[in-house]
Design brief:
Radius of gyration: 20 Å
Order of helices and strands: HEHHEEHHHHH
Distance between the termini: 31 Å
Structural class: mainly alpha
Strand order of the largest sheet: 1-3-2
Number of domains: 2
Shape: globular
CATH superfamily of the largest domain: Winged helix-like DNA-binding domain superfamily/Winged helix DNA-binding domain
Largest sheet: 3 strands, antiparallel
CATH architecture of the largest domain: Orthogonal Bundle
CATH topology of the largest domain: Arc Repressor Mutant, subunit A
Number of helices: 8
């Protein structure tokens, strides 16, 4: 997901490494913070692949800043990743939210809708598979307050996400 976040933010504008790290941190928050040890090697890999270019600009202080920009090949890669996300990018909520943060860059609403339909289908299938001996577990059926919390949160979050996906798909079809 780090590659997707880097390409997505650089699609929007050129940034230096620290700005990019701040944006990724704001996107992922405390859930999956990005370290310099992960970010800068990822940037180097993307640059070596011709997806990101780098140039130096004078810094506000004494040190120059390395500014990162997305190349045409990087734009192509980003749009391909958005158009056809990996299954884990659909099933993992954090990865899906990173994908969702940049989905607006796909110029084709039909392609956007196809990605949202994949997520909605996953959520419907996952909810159907969340059974205990043939029935949906209910928070009220357990004395364990932590399991109650897990079930209530999962039900509320899943319901809210399915509602949003359904509404957004309807809007995209108009």
């Amino acid at each position: 997901m780090l590659e997707l976040a880097i390409l997505g933010f650089l699609y929007e504008e050129s940034l230096h490494g620290y700005e990019l790290k701040e944006r990724i941190t704001a996107l992922n928050g405390h859930v999956r913070p990005v370290s310099d040890g992960a970010l800068y090697p990822a940037i180097s890999r993307l640059a070596a692949a011709g997806l990101v270019s780098q140039h130096t600009e004078p810094g506000t202080g004494a040190a120059p800043r390395r500014v990162l920009s997305l190349t045409d090949a990087g734009r192509t890669r980003l749009l391909a990743r958005l158009r056809d996300p990996k299954p884990i990018e659909i099933t993992d909520a954090t990865r899906f939210f990173v994908l969702l943060a940049f989905l607006r860059h796909l110029p084709d609403t039909a392609a956007q809708a196809a990605v949202l339909r994949r997520r909605l289908e996953f959520l419907r299938t996952a909810a159907a598979g969340f059974f205990d001996r043939g029935r949906h577990p209910r928070a009220e059926d357990t004395a364990d307050p932590f399991r109650q919390g897990m079930l209530r949160i999962a039900r509320a979050r899943g319901s809210a996400e399915r509602d949003w996906l359904t509404e957004t798909l309807a809007e995209l079809s108009h």
